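hey can u check if this looks right to u? its 62 residues, i copy pasted from the old doc so theres a chance i mangled smth
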Amino acid sequence: MFGSLGMPELLVILVIILIIFGAGKLPEIGGAIGKGIKNFKRATHEPDEINVTPEARKIEPK
């Protein structure tokens, strides 16, 4: 029932977005979505473990 969106549905969604946000905001919205997807992909490919232990400092005797 809700399996896929065809071309007519996508056009209706695009027209509604254009009416709500206006033509001037669309490039900003597209850029923000693109950056979000890029950051998400980068986060999924990073290693899971993060080293949070402080480095040991050498204290030299005087």
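Residues 26-45 form the longest helix (20 residues).
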